[in-house]
Protein 1
Amino acid sequence: MPNNMSRGLSTVRLHVLQTYAFLARNWHLTRRYWGWEVVWFFYSLTSGLSVVFIAQGAEALTGQEVGFDVQYLTMYLIIGTLVWRYLSAIFILTSEVIAWERWEGTIEYTLMAPVHRWVHLIGQTAYSLTYGLISTLIIGIAMALFFELDLSNANLLGAGVVILAGSLSLVGIGILASILPLLYPERGAQMTNVVEASFLLISGVYYPVSVLPDWMEAIARISPVTYVLDGTRAAILDGAPVSEMQQYVLPLLLLGVVTLPIGLRAFKAAEDYAKRTGKLKRVG
Amino acid sequence: MQAKRPLDMRQALVVDNITKYFHLPKPPLWKRLLGAKEILPAPGMLPSVKNDGKEPVVAVDHVSFTVARGEIFGVLGPNGSGKSTLIRLISTLLKADKGSAKVFGIDIADDEMGVKQLISRVSVDAAFFKKLSPMENLLYGARLYGVTGPEAAVKAYEIMGRLGLKRSTYSEPMEEMSRGMQQKVAIARAFLTSPILLLLDEPTTGLDPRSKRDVRAFIEELRDSHDATILITTHDMEEADSLCDRVAVIHNGKLVATGTPDDLKRSISNNGKPPTLEDVFMVLTGEQLSDADGADASLSD
């Protein structure tokens, strides 16, 4: 009898194949929407350059010699731009795991396939990490054409460790945010953009969080983006050794360890709710 | 994939008293956070309180039937009668409020993943990534069901060729294909994963006569050469008559009759003229199918 259960794939091979299905599908979608990719790349590059040029224009703005290191501020803003680009790509692509299906009208097909939800989320997460890394590298190379990057004092390994730990917690929060389009078919995807914008405001992407009002600074202290930015800047601008990265890496790992299982559990609960109330129908 | 338990091959599908309500009044948020669910009404009763401005409805109302292995079983009814909700319940896309459904002996509520491995569904709106090509969509679907890329590619070429799809369209975006072509690719996708229970939700609605004929021939081939059991919903009485071994008539969420098309036709008299399934529907429900379509179109289907 021909059926799905006689194909003889081991469980591990099956899960790898299913993970690859999501990776390959997303790659094909990115390729087919290449025009939009060019637009997003251009938009990200120009907005990043616009912010960094503020440092370069400090003297012209004030009309007098500034009392700070312009090169330091330039690097500070470049790091903010690139780290934010990477983390926001992870957050948005992970949180859009359901939104994409709704936009394309495939939500019912994908969710009735015999795929464990954690395999589905690993596939989407793997793509978001790959996409975030490659697109950020391209923008970083493009920015290097405009500004002199001083990496003489940088501890790139330390920065990499912090960013890796930060990716974990952003994936956990992205999975939590991905529930919104399950619960709110019409407005869920818009809500995830509000969450992303809030991270941008409170996490010290372009300024230290100490300049924020006290209540916002308190929230910034539980944002993983704050720790990633602080740690990356300490490693690249101040050359802080890996041993000093613990103060950034440990909170990030803790946030990841907490948000990932909560995200998976909440996703399951939201999917059950959507199946009980008929919210999986293609809309949005 | 490995079966968790042996399959019961005697009955492909056993639906027992399955019921689905929509828009029931919700308990307060704090109670829902503590796990409280909607209070289900007594049979035949619906609360008058609206939920988010919508009247409570019973979309599938205590429906029971069985489908034998290898059968083509039709569910007939107008738009809004509960056909698509019934298919969604069996497809694991909805959770039933009451009753149960078993696919080859596996209870959907107990082992959702086990059921998903056995079924495939083709819906009235071919659900594809419209920018992707047929081949990219088919490979995606096949991998989800455990078919490797090379194996799926060989089968996909063969199936699409048999369905009359031009080779030049295999790598073009789906959005550039006609609806009939898209629906053929949807059938090919279901075929590719070799389901033993295929759920077809109005697969020929909106297709031109030739495409309808092709799709029907393909469904029969699937049953005959692949040992598949097929549950098909339709409001095309002629299609049901020619394709289905048995049919169930559903109206306002309730099952009103089940039998072979010939038995159902024999069960009514038509002033000496040979009755059609359309006549059967009219006698059983008191409505013309076209009238019922318009009247019930606003329901959740």
Protein 2
Amino acid sequence: MLKHTFGVKRLFWRIFIAFWLASLLVMIATGFVLVNKFSSDEYNKRFFNDVVSQAERIVWRYEQDLATSGGAKVKLKDWVNNKHNRDGHLIPMLIKNDNGKTVYHYRLNKIKLKDRTEQHVTGPSNREYQVHIRKPKAPRIYKQVLYRFQSLQFGFIFIASALVSALLSWSIILPLNYLGAFSRRYANQQEVAILPRKLIARGDELGDLALDIDFMINKTHAAASAQQQLLHDVSHELRAPLARLQASAALIEQKSPDSRHVKQIHNDCLRIDQLIQQILDYSKLEQGSPTVENCDLNALCQHVVDNMAVNYPGIPVHFTARGKIELAGYPEALLQALDNIIGNACKYSANGELVEVSTLARELSVVVTVRDHGPGVDDEEMSKLSQPFYRAGNQMHTNGFGLGLSIAVKAINKHNGELRMSSPDDGGLCVEIILPRTLP
Amino acid sequence: MENDKYKVLLVDDDITLCDLLSEFLQEDGFAVETLNSGDAAILRLMETDEFDTVVLDIMMPGMSGLDVLRTVRAKRHVPILMLTGRGDDIDRIVGLEMGADDYLAKPCNPRELGARIRAIIRRTQQGNSSNIVHAQLHGIVLDSGTRTALVNNIALPLTGAEFNALSLLMERAGQTISKQDMTQEVLNRPLEAYDRAMDVHVSRIRQKLAAVSIQDVIKSVRGVGYQMLTEPQLQQEKG
């Protein structure tokens, strides 16, 4: 799950990029419209102003020339070409008087008729003149837009929109991530935690989602505890008829001592009782955790090893403790794990075959190794061993239910530990229990 | 003949089971009376001393077996055998610490129940029979005739099982006695897996000795059993 945290596929980046792009597009479009509308109007106005002022000067000079001499045309050209007499660059234009006679012409012939437009000016003598000019053409709009966007203002807007988009993304993703982490935590620990009120009280869709998850967790928990309770109650209730059955069998036995079937009944009663006990142990491990205690692992191992001498008098169990090993944990669960694993080693060993148990302290974890010299387990079967009610197929043991190892695995998982099994080259089975020193 | 039979009080809320067990135990040679609630058991036990053993189910609705045990033990010394669930370690230890003599996992084979009752009766009546021993060590004086342990002429309040365990340890002072042997000799039964009875009895003896300032005289030998130190051994340990 971690490898996607920063990928483009993450919702955070998708929302961020979408909002950012959208806000940038809106800004560019707005800029475009503004430039298009106001800038070109302004340009045209300035252009015509320039044209009129230049034309008026030329007309004024023309009328002066006309009044003083006949060769007005030549003198006007000379006057215009003198840059002391003109204001700015020369605009291509053609000026005609009210008789249609050309008074002044500068480079307008290159411009097609359809690109021309005309203005009217009035000379000092109140005569009207037609001024032909090229239609004003504002420079390309995108150039203006780009020019505007290169400014510092735009830089600020750019950063601000990125920040706002990121903030928006976060505000959506943060509660989602929290909900995800929350449900993962719940799934791992099987404990009812309460979602923060703040999240539920949001009132928006995320609040609804939180409410739904809260509802789901409560439902799941209710279902799980109902199942645990049922298992527990059924197991307990089975014991009462079992006790009566045993008592009745004993009465039959008392009255006809040679009944061989009664022995069978007794054996099966014992077996059912053991199964009930294992189911109870298993369901107890599923239930909420008891308080964490400081456990002396060597003492727990020694305790279990001592008891093996009672149950399996023919199997020598050697215990080697290396150093003082203490860890935070649930002693009851650890005892069950050790009892089942060391018990299995003894069960699958023939009389006289050595079972070795040793402990080892590491910096952050502790390891219990249980090694037997029995028939061992096939590699492919090893992974199935911890499933409830699974029994290794190459064993014809009727003594057991296949629950032992699942109980052990559950107890070890409760400590965030790990169970490793391997087949040593010289036969038998080697089981390692690795437990962290502290619980998370 | 009727008067020679040992009298057993059977307390269990399961009426059918009580009837079946009572029938079995009567056939096995006991005089059995059954009661189906904790309150009734307390009333009956307070009014009479006639029972040789009480078999008490721990899991009972209302007043539990442990409540009965606590109330009865304060006034009566009748031997009590608890019936506990197989996995209920805590109940067992609490029960033994409250002064129960032994426990048996339920459901059980009634023959085993009969054997346990017999074992308890045999050991509470041991003192009444033969070989009276007077032992003395660390200032503890044992009189197996009267089944009392005296320290500075004051009697230690020991239960039957505790007295037997202490006298066995003193008899073989200096030797390590295995838990198997102790269970066999003190409780008259073989050691079971995860059997805490002997540990609880020994720890209770230690507490009672410590209360009269006798400390560290019983040593635990890890993985084996217990040892009562002789006086030179105790000097050495302390030195």
